[in-house]
């Protein structure tokens, strides 16, 4: 790793004991996060927490691509927006239950990811980012004009339905625990993906695609799969958000959403699991508490972005991970 | 397992814990930083504060508290704020939400919670498919906006129309309603262009309008686009009359009256109409440094009537207040009263104005000359065309 700008990711010794697939330090972080999910609704407004959880899943998906595969996408808002719209449409117009509506949003985003990825992975670096951005802008204008999205009025009255046909999700308590558990499961799942043989290949591609290819791996195939998984998980996050808030709007599919997830990932730590968690909490809290000050929020976000890029490029969890010499 | 259950039950307690109900709490959900912030935003909050003060600062012996928040013109932000106001602040009424997307998103949440929603969105959907028993439209809807000026112009000979429309739902709805009104009145639409929200150069559209043989250009757009179109039309020296649907005195101030002279339109409130409006406007200007726009005035009237309704009902409970709100006519600042129809639409006339020439503007902000009035009933969507389910329920 001669390039000092490349993220240094502590992988951990393969001999280390794993608990639930987590390395010990990560497991401690996971337990802490479980505690936060369990205790936070007593002091923090639950709908705010659920919003944060959706963005944690979104950031995990993004980090899988940027941090663990080394592909920088500027088009994830397209998956986030369309995932939400399709989930909402499935729940409201087709009357599908919660699980199937979320699945619809997830699969839609995944299929879009497959197409986007197929086009974009032919290029790398800046060109890759530009292609994803261009495709996402096309999707944005489709969403603006298409009838089913409601244009700038958005899609409203998305029903929450019931979980497994039994738990009524319009009860905020049941909704909160459902979303909380799904978020914890997402953290677990992404950690498993990263530590699977598939994840090892992704990391090899990130470090040196040419060498990975010379070892006989079909690099493009792996990149495409990583892109598709990332898009699908993004659609999953968006679907949950659509169900929680009952709406799906253009702001989800706007380019600002793409930059927001970049910011969350950067602040938390690129190539970490719990960076997504810390980053989402931090950025969304900032948005929540600075909302009354309108345009100042954008200014503060810009300053935070520059600060992290200039002096703290590893992000909060990334820095902590370097200091502890443990993967987080 | 035991601890798990304990945690669950504590969390349930936290979620279900009712908010404190002491004060009468008004929530003003506004665009404080976006495209309508100059027209409404901060200045409408001043108007609401004025209404509260004029009422004496308390109702039913409880102090009146005003919350305000910026929805950033994002529906999900607006919806989250409304939800939090209901759950945490125990809000008694939500005001404004002056953006169709935000209004449409807030509507079902407030309806479910049984809290009155006195909104300032202009989409007709909120008094049709999405009408709610406790929901009242404080501003004119797109139906009324599109007819108020269109019909008199067609009748006075401007019967060939060309539309420049902002290419999304608000513009399309305004254009569709305007075109229907034109055809009904015996005119015709000879051409339409849709401009994208990114457009800043409208010269091609204006030339197309000129070539189409139209004798009026309908501007189914608003804000900075409208100002840009007016300025560019002036640069071309175009003689065709521009017809804006949604023009406030603040837009004229920022565009400059020299670019907007001789334009005819309709507005719900004009500060220099009569003695009563002048008296109100002087008091408003003392606080805010300029006369009130129509949105400011509507918020004042609505809040004043809401507080009277709370007093009449003897409670802040949504259903009772709503009943009282609809049972008594709303006093207009300009004199006279309006009432609320079943679908939540206020039955309200509009003033027809013509913008003055720069040399005729002798007082600051006195840009309009009122030349007529559009009858309230002519601006109401006929009941048989409405899709609101509340008609006929009694």
| Helical run tally of chain A | 14
Looking at the overall shape, the CATH architecture of the largest domain in chain B is: 3-Layer(aba) Sandwich
* Uncertain stretches of 5 or more adjacent residues of chain B: 1-20
Largest interface: A-B, 35 and 41 residues
Tally of helical runs of chain B: 12
Strand coverage percent of chain B: 15-25%
CA-CA gap between termini of chain B: 53 Å
> How many domains is the backbone of chain B divided into?
2
- Would you count the extended β strands of chain B for me? 16
Helix content of chain B: 40-55%
**C-alpha Rg of chain B (nearest Å):** 22 Å
Let me know the average pLDDT of chain B: 88
The radius of gyration over CA of chain A amounts to 19 Å
Give a concise summary.
The complex is a heterodimer of chains A (328) and B (394). By secondary structure, chain A is mostly helical.
Note down, in words, how this protein is organized.
- The complex is a heterodimer of chains A (328) and B (394).
- With 328 residues, chain A is mostly helical.
- Chain A has a domain at 40-254.
- Chain A contains 14 helices and 2 strands, in the order H-H-H-H-H-E-E-H-H-H-H-H-H-H-H-H.
- Chain A has helices spanning 24-39, 46-69, 76-92, 98-120, 125-145, 172-195, 197-207, 209-214, 219-245, 250-253, 255-268, 274-290, 296-311, 315-324; strands at residues 162-163, 167-168.
- Chain A has a two-stranded antiparallel ribbon with strand order 1-2.
- Chain B folds into 2 domains: 3-139 and 275-347, Response regulator (Rossmann fold), CATH 3.40.50; 143-267 and 349-379, Rossmann fold.
- In chain B, the strands form 4 sheets. Chain B has a 6-stranded mixed β-sheet with strand order 2-3-1-4-5-6, sandwiched between helices. A 4-stranded parallel β-sheet of chain B has the order 8-7-9-10, with helices on both faces.
- In chain B, strand 13 and strand 14 (346-347) form a beta hairpin.
- The longest helix of chain B has 20 residues, at 294-313.
- Mean pLDDT of chain B is 88; it is low at 1-20.
- At the A-B interface, helix 2, helix 6 and helix 10 of A face helix 1, strand 3, helix 3, helix 4 and helix 6 of B.
